[in-house]
Amino acid sequence: MGSPAFKLARFYPIVPDIGWVARIVPLGVKLVQLRIKDGTRTDIVDQTRQALNLTRSHGCQLILNDYWDVAIETGADFIHLGQDDLRHADLTAIKRAGIRIGVSTHDDQELAAALAVEPEYVALGPVYETKLKAMPWAPQGLDRIKEWRAKIGPLPLVAIGGLTPERAPGVVAAGADSLAVITDFMTAADPEARIALWLSQTEDL
Is 63 helix (H, G, I), strand (E, B) or coil? Predict the structure, then answer.
């Protein structure tokens, strides 16, 4: 498993492009995932390089979603893999490059597959109903977080799906180390103010 000394920031925003990275990292965000869904390889490499330069200059950890080969090419040190990506990724090349891995899980079988690659963290979701996209999984709920916490021991646990600042204390109390957030701040009337609220709400959790 990942190093027990490794610690994720409590607030873990996920954004779709370099524009959002540039918008929120200067606000004090210390952990961000760049999840580019569409684009040419050249564009993805370019956005990743820009994001790495920006996050490193602000003392922020960048996690690149899916594109493990781009992570190797650009010198990124962290990727997040879904279960499909996990099955097709060149794990030997990833480990050789010293890249840390976070993995999505939704059930016991997926958890076993994730733990087999010795990840730096495991993500569980959706904790609550999410409007971002249609999910084949029912909301996991707080009891499921407690169950995952017991199963993975000291390995960092990321909760995702339907999270709000108001729900954050309960999710952390159930055992989540880090709270992955997308819709709550991206759809807010004032995303910067919502980010600031998240940072203040999670500072002492």
Answer: strand
Nearest one of 131, 132, 181, 177 to 155, comparing CA atoms: 177
pLDDT digits (tens, 9 = 90+) for 6-20: 689 999 999 999 999
Calculated CA dihedral for residues 73, 78, 83, 84, nearest 10 degrees: -10
Cα angle at 5 between 99 and 91, to 5 degrees?
Answer: 25
**For the CA atoms of 117, 168, 63, 21, what is the dihedral angle to 10 degrees?**
170
Q: Can you list the domains of the chain with their CATH numbers?
A: 11-202 (3.20.20.70)
Which uninterrupted H or E stretch holds 124?
strand 121-124
Q: Which are the contacts of 2, defined by CB distance < 8 A and separation ≥ 6? A: 100, 118, 119, 120, 121, 155, 156
Peptide bond into 126 cis (omega under 30): yes
Q: What is the pTM of this model?
A: 0.94
Please give the helix or strand (H or E) that residue 74 lies within, else none: helix 68-74
